[in-house]
């Protein structure tokens, strides 16, 4: 187990291993997303109050889940990078940030679209919308700070510190905003209690959630691989890989 | 402990010799407050409703404005490097610097806020709470803001970036600070809001110095 984790720290080993894992996550993501969206959009029963507009939930909730999980994943990667100086962790955190920002935006945008039929307005200064908006600003801050440094290593460490500070603050911000004002319904979907939605409605949601997570893992693996190639471009193994791709796949198979 | 005291005294002396820098945030605070009646309406009834929020947001921005210079001059003349080399806890030394910043920015802001409150026809009975909440809250703002200042001190144009990094993190302080003043106006319990502001301060006192120290090391070591 520990040997496996230690090996993950080597960019070269990570590059090889992620090549094997990547197709599985892509396949799972495509399968789950296709099944989930078909089921959710076409076959799940319409809500008795909201009609068909409730189907936005199948994009909105997974995006919101991911937006929060990605920030935590970035903070964990930042911690790993700061404590053990594992470069792969920082590369992963680098590529996760824009994706997390996009997911936050998707959650905000789908929430705004959903607001029109249900609340009658695009924007409402409600607790969850507001804390999502703040999360978006935190993402933008991390991305901006990283790119502000001319030396990549300083930028990486600064971004890691800011991500960790942010992750401590997120629950505080969330609870203070909740306390400040709330109009949004309370969470209708938790992992601990039985769902209040009928099975026909929440099962596609679970599938969509898993699909979004698989998609996130797949795209992170893919983009981390290109980040490895970019940063390790001067290393011999990368140059060998790039000059003779046939040979390297052959040697990989031989191993 | 002696080193912390020495840093405190040094920073205090340095800042007291440049009085302009202490005055600037206060003048900025007063100016921003002057803009609002002109931009919105001079109607006292309307101003009284929005006064707590205006005062808090303006004070927040004024405190933020002064943060950029917190480590800047020490970075430029190299004394920040000496602090890093000193055989004392960098967290404790940076806490001393933050304490000076609060004493000469946050506290004066809290003290002149009631005066500006009178001009915005803030309801009577909330002045003490306004000053107290600003004094408590600005201490947390100095601590949280110092993390951003330490992260951006090595950058040529860190000013706007600093606000971008720090403002989202200050939202809880703002919410409970304004909440305290509004509770005082309505006449409901103020203690809860002030207690939460105190809790935020305690938490940032505990955690922020380490983040500031780590950020200073990143900025100095390049």
UniProtKB/TrEMBL annotation, chain A:
Location of the Cytochrome c assembly protein domain: 17-184
Pfam families registered for this protein in UniProt: Cytochrom_C_asm
Subcellular location: Cell inner membrane; Membrane
Keywords: Cell inner membrane, Cell membrane, Cytochrome c-type biogenesis, Membrane, Transmembrane, Transmembrane helix, Transport
Keyword Repeat recorded: no
Glycosyltransferase found in the keyword field: no
Membrane topology: Multi-pass membrane protein
Listed transmembrane segments: 56-84, 96-117, 129-149, 161-181, 201-221
Chief location bin: membrane
NCBIfam families, alphabetized: ccmC
PANTHER family for the chain: CYTOCHROME B_B6 PROTEIN-RELATED (PTHR30071:SF1), HEME EXPORTER PROTEIN C (PTHR30071)
Family: Belongs to the CcmC/CycZ/HelC family.
Record function comment: Required for the export of heme to the periplasm for the biogenesis of c-type cytochromes.
Protein name in UniProt: Heme exporter protein C
Source organism of the structure: Halomonas casei
